[in-house]
């Protein structure tokens, strides 16, 4: 797939496959084309060359409403992700716009909140009543409400402090096990995907420079850029990961 | 803000009351009772035709407020949707067309064009409303677009797009409620400008026509007697000043109260 902005080629001949139930890490620094790729995958922007397919059907901007409900997203900013004037009930149910509002919408919203470790009582609260970590849980609940198969995590834990980040990562891994979700985990931070990703792609200046199973990337990085990223990464104490 | 709210409320109440009741009928002239000083019967005295000044001021408040209110309504009703539409298609041809159209209207001196409109189509309250209202449209379009543009970059708008919502639905559900405070403040300011414009138009005889009482015309009628009966000019003048002052104070207060950044500074 390719996407250019004027003379700049933001995403250049990138090809990736996300398998069912897999967690694929996409790592690259700011401006490498991750966001453009995300918007294309979500069908918000067209691609100039190449194709996106979802379960064998054409995807991207060609997705039907029902197809769009099968792919969802969690954004980075726990503050900008929610309309401050909407209640959590309304926010979490917003993706129902794609599917039509089911009769048990409220029950499903409550269930989605409980899935992410919040309670049904939080439905009538407003986003400002929650901490950053709790907001990301609400964002995950919103992403899960239409029971998608693919969730794009666009820097979903990057704005969280290290301890909360570990908790949300634990929740994501847990949800993946239970619901059989496929994650496209987009981040600039290699250490974040180490614990959750099955495979990792390293992206730089719109191109994939290296890809392989997580262990291989960490133990035997081939590309000099990957080695730079690894050398720059801090480490998370092991006992923080399990904390809830 | 409290002073502004009280001043505005007094005039609004006077205008509302005048719809059903005024102390004396403003259509009845009684030359024998002209230019009386304040008394129990005529609280603010009478004018050169013997009409009760309090009744005239109350009915004048109704004229001014009605004209300004409808003019602001035209501005909000047309300007806000245009501004939202421009912001939703930011950078596109629709944005260009709407905003250049705005610039075009801004390029004309508003009061002169208002005079032209009322002079061409005949002086009346309705034409005054239209003339003032047209110049409110670009003001609200700009405020709406300016408030909406930064919101379009936020993730919650992206989330709404991922949820399959179109630009118009997002504008209505997410953008408009979040710029409502900007619009309320602007509406208060435009309202006070509308009062002034209406007074100016009726002062030169292009606003509401006799016998409908109007502050601007009361001023115009009184100016030949400014040395002998100064209260006839002073009272409608003060009414205009206090209502506009009240609205401006209210607008400033609302802006401070509705702007979360200023609220934090005060707390």
Q: What layout of secondary structure does this protein have?
A:
The complex is a heterodimer of chains A (244) and B (267).
Chain A: E1 3-5, E2 8-11, E3 23-27, H1 34-41, E4 53-54, E5 57-58, H2 65-68, E6 71-74, H3 88-93, H4 96-99, H5 105-115, H6 132-144, E7 150-154, H7 162-179, E8 182-187, H8 190-194, E9 199-204, E10 207-213, H9 214-219, H10 224-232
Chain B: H1 2-20, H2 53-88, H3 93-106, H4 110-121, H5 125-134, H6 136-152, H7 155-162, H8 167-203, H9 215-222, H10 230-258, H11 260-266
Keywords (chain B): Cell membrane, Membrane, Transmembrane, Transmembrane helix, Transport
Pfam family, one (chain B): BPD_transp_1
Subcellular location (chain B): Cell membrane
Structure in words:
By secondary structure, chain A is an alpha/beta fold. Chain A contains ten helices and ten strands. Chain A has helices at 34-41, 65-68, 88-93, 96-99, 105-115, 132-144, 162-179, 190-194, 214-219, 224-232, and strands at residues 3-5, 8-11, 23-27, 53-54, 57-58, 71-74, 150-154, 182-187, 199-204, 207-213. In chain A, strand 9 and strand 10 (207-213) form a beta hairpin. The mean pLDDT of chain A is 82. Chain B is mainly α and 267 residues long. Chain B has a single domain, classed as Orthogonal Bundle (MetI-like fold), CATH 1.10.3720. Chain B is 74% helix and 0% strand. Chain B is built from eleven helices and no strands. The interface between A and B is medium-sized, with 21 and 15 residues.
